[in-house]
Amino acid sequence: MFFATAPAAFPASLRRPAYGHSGRTVERFLNDALLSARQSGTAYTQDETSFTLSLDVPGITKEHLRITIDSAVVRIQSKDDAPRRYRAAYEFPQEVDSALSEAKLENGVLTLKLAKKVPVDSSVELSIQ
């Protein structure tokens, strides 16, 4: 079968795809579905002073976990000698104070109470000459 190309009725600068964002919608849907399936054992709450994050990590002891806090990003991963592999990273809307934060592992549930860092006003008044 032979198909001939039709001449362009409009210049390329005026043409645009009618459903240009539909591909991203499907991609976003699939990513959200995979993310929710992977993190179904995750609970998140917050109050004025802290974030609380609960994660299901069955089969991993506290000696096999490594938790690092870098500003507003918290990374949780299993060590090399752990019986299971676990790796996750969470970015919070505010910086986390690592000195006041705590972690507890009980019955396969890791609970992180992450203290919010109090924002420091670093503004300086500029004198007018």
UniProtKB/TrEMBL annotation:
Domain CS: 37-125
The organism's place on the tree of life at top rank: Bacteria
Domain SHSP: from-to ranges: 33-129
InterPro entries: A-crystallin/Hsp20_dom (IPR002068), CS_dom (IPR007052), HSP20-like_chaperone (IPR008978)
Family assignment from sequence similarity: Belongs to the small heat shock protein (HSP20) family.
Name of the featured protein: Hsp20/alpha crystallin family protein
